[in-house]
């Protein structure tokens, strides 16, 4: 069963501020799209909505359902992931405290489950032939599982390079796989399925891109809420987030910003976007956000040549920055984390690499930090 939030009042553009009615906006704000500056929209709630903290019941994401687009949604037990202390690595790096939020503890092994739960609820509610996503791994595994739980047909568009464990997980859930040669071709197929056949897409398919489906992305707020609740993160200086097009980065920002507004936190920590090669970093230095930033890396889950406006806002509003994680250093940090008992996907381990890059920069004074461990390593091929 799924039930929309009675307090959902509409969707607001994060760039121009235009308020749009409750509907579907897979291509972001119509006004900004017409202006050739694609930007995401976010759900807004009326003044009667209860506060995020203390107003919910249950466990996991369900505790915060009153602040999500759908108060009832297909659930596999996502949320309430552990925050693990890393005292040995903190000493090695000269920090007072270092911890990692293990999103690998979600049902399909990644943070994507927080998005899938809300997205699938919306897709089920609106009808249509099914759901679709362009994915190199985690999003496909997650969406196929949640679609199966909701009884929805699912298509995952990927490349032949997809890891066999991810492919098997998608196939076992009953989803159809369509193979293409590159990411832009994936987007073209998804775009046709959405515009011509009415499929609901969990992921972006535009170039320049916007964030993923806004109903789904709002599920990532719950990770920000959980960080705000934990005493270990009360005064953390910086949070390191592996970033491609910034859905998770934006969700964490939005959840923490609400926590500050409600008095749960005294201030907003700096959000540091960790990318495989300079993209957002170039935008922050003045390059047009709509540009392409080509590069190659083994960090496939955060790959791609594009940047979103939501990433830019999350970093600038939190006084954060973007850092690059060279793949050789990320590989070393993946092993380093494994030697501390945490086997993470390479793109997730890059959060530690990003921290190393940040503390080496002149003028940086990071005393405490949180890494976002987006996914475990058991789905990767050697």
Automatic annotation (TrEMBL):
Q: Which SUPFAM superfamilies match?
A: Tryptophan synthase beta subunit-like PLP-dependent enzymes
* Pfam families in UniProt: PALP
Name this polypeptide is given: Pyridoxal-phosphate dependent enzyme
Cite the InterPro entries for this sequence. Cys_Synth/Cystath_Beta-Synth, TrpB-like_PALP, TrpB-like_PALP_sf
Q: Which UniProt keywords apply?
A: Pyridoxal phosphate
**Does the UniProt entry include the keyword DNA repair?**
no
Give residue ranges for domain Tryptophan synthase beta chain-like PALP: 75-359
Q: What are its cofactors?
A: pyridoxal 5'-phosphate
Keyword field contains Kinase: no
Q: Which GO terms describe its biological process?
A: alpha-amino acid metabolic process
């Amino acid at each position: 069963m799924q039930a929309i939030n009675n307090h959902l009042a509409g969707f607001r553009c994060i760039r121009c501020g235009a308020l749009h009615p409750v509907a579907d906006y897979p291509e972001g704000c119509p006004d900004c799209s017409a202006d050739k500056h694609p930007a995401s929209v976010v759900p807004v709630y009326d003044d009667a909505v209860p506060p995020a903290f203390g107003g919910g019941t249950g466990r996991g994401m369900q505790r915060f359902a009153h602040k999500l687009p759908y108060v009832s949604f297909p659930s596999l037990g996502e949320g309430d992931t552990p925050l693990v202390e890393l005292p040995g690595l903190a000493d090695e790096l000269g920090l007072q405290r270092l911890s990692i939020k293990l999103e690998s503890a979600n049902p399909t092994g990644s943070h994507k489950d927080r998005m899938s739960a809300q997205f699938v609820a919306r897709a089920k509610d609106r009808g249509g032939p099914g759901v679709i996503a362009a994915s190199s791994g985690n999003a496909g595994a997650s969406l196929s599982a949640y679609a199966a739980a909701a009884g929805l047909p699912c298509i995952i568009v990927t490349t032949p390079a997809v890891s066999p464990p991810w492919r098997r997980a998608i196939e076992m859930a009953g989803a159809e796989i369509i193979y293409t040669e590159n990411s832009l071709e994936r987007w073209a197929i998804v775009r046709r399925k959405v515009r011509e056949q009415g499929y609901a897409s969990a992921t972006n398919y535009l170039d320049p891109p916007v964030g993923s489906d806004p109903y789904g992305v709002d599920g990532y707020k719950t990770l920000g809420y959980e960080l705000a609740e934990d005493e270990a993160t009360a005064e953390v200086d910086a949070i390191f987030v592996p970033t491609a097009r910034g859905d998770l980065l934006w969700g964490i920002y939005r959840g923490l910003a609400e926590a500050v507004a409600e008095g749960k936190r005294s201030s907003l920590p700096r959000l540091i976007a960790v990318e495989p090669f300079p993209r957002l970093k170039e935008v922050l230095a003045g390059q047009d956000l709509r540009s392409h930033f080509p590069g190659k890396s083994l960090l496939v889950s955060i790959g791609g040549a594009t940047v979103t406006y939501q990433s830019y806002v999350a970093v600038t509003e939190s006084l954060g920055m973007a850092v690059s994680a060279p793949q050789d250093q990320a590989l070393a940090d993946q092993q380093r984390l494994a030697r501390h008992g945490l086997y993470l996907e390479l793109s997730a381990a890059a959060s530690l690499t990003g921290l190393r890059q940040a503390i080496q920069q002149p003028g940086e004074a990071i005393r405490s930090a949180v890494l976002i461990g987006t996914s475990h390593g058991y789905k990767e091929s050697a």
